[in-house]
Design brief:
The complex is a heterodimer. Helix content of chain A is 57%, strand content 15%. Chain A is built from four helices and three strands; from the N terminus they run αβααββα. In chain B, 52% of the residues lie in helices and 15% in strands. Chain B contains 27 helices and 23 strands. Chain B is globular, with a radius of gyration of 38 Å. The two termini of chain B are 29 Å apart. Classes of the chains: A alpha+beta, B alpha+beta.
Chain lengths: 108, 900
């Protein structure tokens, strides 16, 4: 487990990106991020759910109750059109941001 | 399916608070269980896995709290959006429905527009007359107008006008008031030369200003040192409107002079926009002590401030918060009494029972309410009835439509649309209609308000009659109208038994007649009867007033007065000027005759004591009114000489004094004797005889029965050759000649002096205004109600016929004659109307006694009026039933029967 703290707003971006692949439930989102980052990022599950619900309220994602693979009732999230737009804009911003920071930290 | 509101959302995920609570724990539990299972699968012990899962989750309680807040917010948001989109959807649905039947929509919008417009316009008038205190008044609830009441020979007389001295004494001797002010609003000539015009000017004491919460738009207001009987300063504060129109709103107006009357005032300030003082809308405010002297003439200066008998100014007072109106009235009455004691003995004062009425600041709410505002209050009731009739009519039309749409409604009920949604959707339709009606109504009110304003508030120029208060009232009327028109049809149409309609198949239930519709129709017909009876009574009153023999013919007469504005002419020159004016007026094209006159009947009258040899103290027989006139007076006025002769050229100065008396006066002084040749001494016994040479027809003011005045005429050349003005008789209607006559006569006027010309009818008009208003507006509103009732009757009967198509078909197939079918339908129309007439007549008989005081020579139960109303309503009902009846006769039995 690493000690990287999450930059503000990044979690939203990660969630949107995750859901862009396919609709899934909160546990699925957590699993997916964990696998992708190989546990480099330390995200509390509570924070993840808070972020999910906020995104739902902002209508960037929408939720529906469904049945999971192991036949349990689970809340599935999916990206809305607005969410997709937001994901594109935020990805772009993130890329610019890291480029700028990298340019300072690792001069060519 | 998208077209049917309410259906689509049935399948929607609903976000209720209860659901939020339930789901808030489901989601984390699932997560927790999954994590634990996963960890165990990776080889952890169950206890260890649970601890790890809890660690990964973090603060559960905190998170849960946060999630709940977010979700609740979302739920509210969703519900609001759902509601708004529902209303919007309903409104669009309603609009779409109306667009498909533009004629139907137009009738409803126009009907509601007339109803709402009439109410908005009447509210605007009554608000100005009776409800709204003057703007900027600091304490409207404690600001009062004082009225003085005394009794003379058992007759109560109330006046708001009093003398300057009385005002000071009442102010000094009362303790109930924080402050008092005197004011008087009158016409003054403003400007110089040909530009001089009479405008309203407010003469106010310096203490007037603190009654208001105002800051002048420019400059300042005047203070006690400028308003001082011992020598004030001629300064003026302009109204904002006058400053705008006459000075273009220029800031350098301060310090300029403005000629008002014969005084040049220095402009020291401009009142804020919308400030009108306590009354009317004066163009300028000037110190009462300066302008008062100008108004009464320099000679009156002493008496103006020291005598009690010049009653002119009005008093306003600010009551202390700790004092009740009753206490203040007692206090002011005591002050009034002790002021009266300066003039009369204690016994006389006690006999006259002096009281001061501490009345509302709104004049029309005080004890001296005008006839017009009483009529206005009645008309508010009338307007409300018109709106009720309009609503009943619209409700009826909507109901008919809702019944026609039963199938559609039944389908939606079957699809599971809740009744509440259905009602709200039908209500939305009436709200949309009422809103459109309100727009039409405001247009009508704007246009009609101007007419009404000119009728009721002739002195308030340029006030906006549709303002925020009227808009607020309109909104209220609209909401009431939409509820009233929408609720009944909505509840009726959405009744559960409607479902039966679906099962019953296409045909409408045979003899089904809507009881609600019939009741609504009866209601509106009955109200129309009431309104029409009111209209009839007022029309008869007006007719009676107008057909009175007045003894003069005001329509073709102009009154010309001269205003000298401080120009002083020696007596001979003044006399010469008056003769020149007379000569020139007579010679003008378009003028039939002209005569000089000292008084104007009923407006400016002169009374002298008269002594009649052989009659003991003539004064107790009544008030004898004098007019001094030139030759030509009687033909100019159209007053007939019954016997003897008129005042002629012979009656010049030095010749024997001549007099013409009215019939009534002759009868009073010399009953059963010939008046001609009798002697009357003016002023006192020592004066020479004035000999009666003729008897003239009596004159009276429009309405007042006691007005057959004891009038006599003497020769102006023998009495006061320099005095008076002119009556000018024009060949055609007087008003159109006003400006022409003014221009032609003005050239003779020296210096600042000018002539003022106005139609005599305009001077006398206020006395008959209330009947004219009542007659015109009652007739207008009554006609409106009748039209609406006719539309309603037509609608109900057409609907009946449409529903009975089958029955008619059967009857025709069985050989019913056309006459029988006609009769069948018409009978029902006339029967309905008959019931409505009976109900309406009873209401009218019961209610009309309340308007009796406003009528003239008409009994509130005048049979002719009732007969005319009943007959006209029957005629209208027959006309309205004819079309549906004819349609019934044209039913094709084959088609009607095949429809099964």
């Amino acid at each position: 487990m690493s000690d990287l703290e999450l930059v503000q707003g990044t979690l939203d971006l990660l969630i949107l990106k995750t859901l862009a692949w396919s609709p899934t439930h909160g546990y699925g989102v957590a699993q997916w991020i964990r696998e992708r980052t190989r546990d480099d990022l330390q995200i509390e599950d509570g924070a993840l759910y808070t972020a999910l619900h906020r995104l739902e309220r902002r209508a960037l994602i929408e939720a529906e109750w469904g049945v999971s693979d192991n036949n349990r009732k689970a809340k599935y999230y999916r990206l809305t059109a607005d969410g997709r737009k937001q994901l594109r804009a935020q990805t772009e911003r993130w890329a610019r941001y890291t480029r700028a920071v990298s340019a300072v930290l690792q001069p060519a | 399916m998208r077209d049917l509101p309410g259906v689509r959302r049935l399948f929607h995920h609903e976000a209720s608070p209860r659901r939020v609570e339930q789901e808030i724990d489901d989601e984390p539990r699932f997560h927790f269980d999954m994590t634990v299972a996963d960890l165990i699968a990776r080889g952890r012990t169950p206890d260890d896995a649970r601890a790890e899962a809890a660690r990964r989750f973090g603060d559960y309680g905190g998170t849960r709290q946060m999630l709940r807040e977010i979700d609740r917010g979302r739920a509210t948001q969703v519900r609001r959006a759902t509601w708004i989109s529902g209303v919007w959807q309903d409104a669009r649905y309603a609009l779409r429905g109306l667009r498909t039947r533009p004629g139907f929509a137009a009738i409803i919008i126009l009907t509601l527009g007339l109803g709402i417009g009439a109410n908005a316009a009447m509210f605007g008038i009554v608000d100005r007359l009776l409800l709204r205190p003057p703007s900027f008044l600091a304490h409207p609830e404690r600001t009062h107008r004082l009225h003085m009441r005394r009794s003379f020979d058992g007759e109560l007389s109330t006046t708001a006008n009093t003398s300057y001295r009385r005002y000071l004494e009442i102010a000094r001797q009362t303790t109930s008031f924080e402050r008092m002010a005197a004011f008087f609003v009158t016409d003054f000539a403003i400007g110089r030369g040909d530009d001089a015009r009479e405008r309203k000017v407010a003469l106010v004491s310096a203490s007037y200003w603190p009654f208001f919460d105002i800051r002048p738009a420019h400059g300042r207001l005047f203070g006690p040192s400028e308003d001082d009987p011992a020598g004030g300063v001629p300064v003026a504060v302009l109204s904002h409107g006058y400053w705008q129109t006459q000075f273009g709103g220029a800031a350098d107006v301060l310090g300029k002079t403005l000629q008002i009357g014969s005084v040049a005032y220095s402009i020291i300030g401009v009142a804020p926009e919308g400030f009108t003082g306590t009354d009317l809308s004066p163009v300028a405010f000037v110190p009462i002590t300066i302008a008062g002297v100008d108004m009464w003439g320099d000679g009156a200066r002493e008496r103006l401030f020291s005598s009690y008998d010049m009653g002119w100014l009005e008093i306003i007072a600010l009551r202390k918060p700790t004092v009740t109106v009753e206490q203040a009235s007692v206090d002011a009455s005591n002050a009034f009494r002790s002021s009266l004691l300066q003039q009369a003995t204690e016994a006389q004062v006690r006999a006259s029972q002096p009281t001061v009425i501490v009345g509302s600041i709104i004049r029309e709410r005080g004890p001296q309410q005008g006839q017009s505002s009483k009529v206005a209050v009645w008309l508010v009731g009338v307007a409300a009835i018109v709106l009720l009739v309009a609503c009943a009519n619209v409700a009826n039309l909507l109901l008919a439509r809702a019944l026609r749409r039963r199938r559609e409604i039944a389908v939606r009920v079957a699809l599971g649309v809740r009744r509440g949604r259905l009602v709200s959707q039908l209500l939305t339709e009436s709200v949309v209609l009422a809103a459109l009606g309100a727009l039409a109504g405001l247009a009508i009110a704007r246009w009609g308000g101007r007419l009404l304003g000119a009728a009721f508030l002739p002195d308030a120029e340029g006030l906006p009659l549709v303002d925020s208060r009227v808009l607020g009232f309109t909104l209220l009327a609209t909401v009431l109208a939409s509820v009233f028109t929408g609720l009944v049809p909505a509840l009726q149409a959405s009744r559960p038994e409607i479902l039966e309609a679906l099962k019953a198949g296409g045909r409408e239930g045979g003899l089904h007649r809507s009881r609600t519709r019939t009741a609504l129709l009866l209601f509106q017909c009955a109200l129309s009867v009431v309104l029409l009876v009111g209209a009839g009574l007022f029309v008869r009153s007006l007719h009676n007033v107008q057909s009175l023999e007045l003894g003069y013919d005001a329509d073709r007469v102009l009154y010309v007065s001269t205003e000298m504005r401080g120009v002083r002419l020696p007596s001979e020159q003044m006399t010469a000027l008056k003769r020149q004016l007379h000569e020139r007026a007579r010679a003008l094209p378009g003028v039939e005759s002209a005569a000089r006159t000292m008084g104007v009947p009923f407006w400016q009258t002169i009374q002298l004591d008269i002594v009649v040899p052989g009659v003991d103290s003539a004064g107790r027989l009544g008030d004898f009114i004098l007019n001094a006139v030139s030759p030509g007076y009687f033909e100019t006025m159209g007053t007939r000489i019954i016997r003897g002769r008129a005042i002629t050229e012979e009656d010049r100065a030095g010749a024997p004094r001549a007099m013409v008396v009215s019939e009534a006066m002759a009868g009073k002084l010399w009953p059963n004797q010939d008046a001609i040749g009798k002697c009357v001494k003016l002023n006192s016994d020592t004066m020479p005889c004035t000999t009666v040479v003729g008897i003239a027809q009596g004159i009276r003011r429009g309405s007042f029965e006691r007005d057959d005045m004891l009038q006599y005429y003497i020769a102006i050349e023998q009495y006061s050759p320099r005095a008076g003005g002119l009556f000018v008789r024009t060949r055609d209607e007087a008003a159109s000649n006003t400006e022409n006559v003014r221009r032609e006569l003005q050239v003779l006027m020296p210096g600042l002096a000018y002539v003022n010309v106005r139609p005599l009818a305009q001077i006398l008009e206020p006395t008959i205004r209330s009947w004219r208003l009542g007659a015109n507006l009652f007739a207008l509103f009554g006609g409106l109600a009748l039209l609406l009732a006719a539309i309603g009757l037509y609608g109900v009967l057409s609907h009946d016929v449409a529903q009975r198509t089958h029955e008619m078909g059967v009857r025709i197939a069985l050989g019913a004659q056309m006459k029988e079918i006609l009769q069948l339908v018409m009978e029902r129309g006339v029967l309905l109307t008959g019931i409505a007439i009976a109900v309406g007549t009873v209401i009218a008989i019961a209610g009309s006694k309340f308007v009796a005081p406003l009528l003239f020579h008409v009994s509130p139960h005048d049979p002719a009026t009732y007969a005319v109303v009943i007959v006209s309503l029957l005629v209208v009902s027959i006309a309205a039933s004819t079309i549906p009846a004819l349609r019934a006769t044209r039913v094709d039995p084959n088609e009607a029967l095949r429809a099964d």
